[in-house]
Each structure stands twice: as C-alpha cells, then as structure tokens.
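User: These chains co-purify. Model them together.
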Amino acid sequence: MATAKDFVDRINQIDGVAGCLLVKDNGALLGQTLDDVEVYSTLLQLSSSLSRDIMTNIGFSHCRYLSFSRLNMQNFYVFPIDKYLLGVVQLADCSADAMLERIYRLIGRVSTGGSVIVS
Amino acid sequence: MIHLIDELKVIPGVIGACIVTSQEGVKVTNLPAIFKPERLSLVGKHLLKLYSAGRMSFNDLTDVTLHYDESVVVARELDKGMLMFAICDPSFNHNLLTMSFNLLYEEFINGNFSVVANETTVAAAPVAKSALPSEQKISGILQDLLDEMKDALGKILGPMAGFVFDEVTEEWMDQGSADFSRIDELIEQINQEISDEDKEDQYRQLISSALKSYQKG
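Assistant: Joint model of the two components:
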C-alpha cells in the first residue's frame, strides 16, 4: 500500500520534476514538495473541474493531463487520478516527454496496480 | 479571420481550430461539423476560465493544453476575452503548432489581419520566397522548381513550411550537389518532416506537375 508521501516522493525523484503536490478533489493537501501550495492547490481544483466540463461538452472520455505552458519553461502539469489530483512543476531544462512518460507510468501503477493512495 | 485558423489546420494532426470571445462565443471555426457551434461556445468559455485561472498563478502563461484519450486541445489567448484553440489528434506535432501559434499571435498583435464576419475563403498558407541559404549554387530553372515545391509545402504544413523547406534544402545541399538527379532525396527528406502518409501523398500530387515540367525542360 503506497502512502501519499511515498507517492509524492517517487514522483519528485523523476528526472525533470522540480516539485509536486497531491491533493484530494475536495482540496485537502496530502503531500507536497513545493512552496506556494495554496496557489497550486486552487489551480488544481479549478482546472480539474473545467477540464471535466470541456470533456462533457465535446464528448471526450478521459482527461489524461493538462499542462500550463510558461515562457520560463517551468510548465505546470495536472494529472487527475481518480479522486486525487497530482500537480507537477517541470524543471526549465529537461526532456518533458521523458518526464511525462515516467509520471504517467507511475500513475498507471498506483491507480490500476492494486495499490491505494492513503493519507 | 478564417485564414488565420486555416493555416493551423494544415499542420499534420490538427483537426481544426476555433476563435472564441467571452461576449460572442464562436467567432470563427474550421472544425468539422460534428463539433456544433453551441458546444464550441461552451468549450470556449470553459477554456477562457481555465486560461484566466492559469494566468492568476502564472503571469508568463502562454498556452493551456488538455490531453484527452481521443484528442488534445491547445488554447492560446489572443486578447482579453478572446482565445483561439485547436483540436488535434494525440499524435500531432506540438512544437509545430506552438510555433504556428506564436506566428499567428504576432500577426494578431501587429494587426496584420482584420476581423471579417462570415469570411469563408480557405486560403493556402502564404510562403515567403526567402532566399535559400545556398541559392548561388542552384541553377535558375532548378530554383524555380524549388520555389514551386516550397509553395506546395505551404499548403501542407502551413506557416512553418518556408522555414522547414529552407532547413531541409540546406541539409540536402550539404549532402551533395544541388542537382535534379537528387530531387527524390530532397522529397524524401521533406516527407520525413511532413510525417503523415496522406499529407505526403497530397504533397507528391501537388508537386508532380512541376516535376514533369522540369523534366520536359
């Protein structure tokens, strides 16, 4: 059984990850390696809700992730995982594709491999 | 304004695009009819909210991208309350779309296009006939052929075509003589950039008459 802290730590160790946070869909913080958690936490909730609205309106089935691209290249990613939301800040100088692939693989293992995230 | 998004649609993997405003909803779209305007208006409003939320956290925000199983939605703010978004296949070339967004955004802020209601003309992407890096090595008649090939690529790749064509041609000339006997190599290298079988076929068709004319002299 993976705890939220284990999960956040493992995400944080992926090459290219500057920091991350995990919240429940009600906004409760479960773990973080970032400052300004409140800013990110609010954005996680808002973006998850709006991405669901867009999905419903346009007829898509599942949102894998959202990204906020920035001029400073420290892009912010939001991964909806069942009733949880993972936010990841990317390092400016990294291979985003490789980082995303590793994050997505880890998320797949956590949410489908029989493990449960617990706080 | 339609020409603006038609340039996006020629990028491999881009299904179509749309410009929305918070006041008027859909301003213009070239998405397939399956995407109903009223739905696109709602999507546009949600994207505007999402963009605003992102902007509150990141003042250097450029694009917002949503990756769904079936498609990817990429949004860029043009002005306060106005946003363009593209819907793409998951395999689309994100870098190419971002660069095209940058170019079109520049056009927009420089006022190089006007908002024309009900404009429906589908314009091919204009491709500047900038000098090739090693133009002096190419015969006049071959240069004409390359110009035609470059124009044709504009209809396939959109606003990035000129840049891509010059790069590929420069590489092709570095690999050997700029001669018609090596034209298949150049076409192959261009096809690698197009990276879409249907579009590659379309490109071959577009340049076939120019190639035949060249061979006839």
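The interface with chain A takes residues 35, 39, 42-43, 46-47, 49-50, 53-54, 56-58, 60-71, 73, 87, 98 of chain B (CB under 8 Å).
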